[in-house]
Amino acid sequence: MLNPNISESNAFIRMMCGVAMTAFGIGRIARDSKCTTGRMMILAGAMKVAEGYYQYCPVTAMVKSEEMNPIAAVND
After folding, report:
1. If DSSP states are collapsed to H, E and C, what string results for 34-54?
2. Could you list the pLDDT tens digit for every one of the 76 residues in the chain?
3. Residues contacting 69, CB < 8 A, separation 6+
């Protein structure tokens, strides 16, 4: 399925930041149910938790992919 492309320590840090972001977003939603910032924080936090759990970052995979290397060489 997905091959891990981030280290265990990086995954742990992402997971803890994701949990904190999600908790912060839930706190904002609890005060004001129409808070867009809180909803975005929950979404971003959940994505970080998933990246940490699966040890896979799509942005890292995109940067390290073979398709991006020719494009980077043209811009140099």
Report:
1. CCHHHHHHHHHHHHHHHHHHH
2. 678 899 999 999 999 999 999 999 999 999 999 999 999 999 999 999 999 999 999 988 888 877 665 655 555 5
3. none
Cβ neighbourhood burial of 58 (10 Å; 0-12, 13-18, 19+): exposed
The identity of residue 65, as a single letter, is S
Of residues 48, 55, 49, the one with CA closest to residue 11: 55
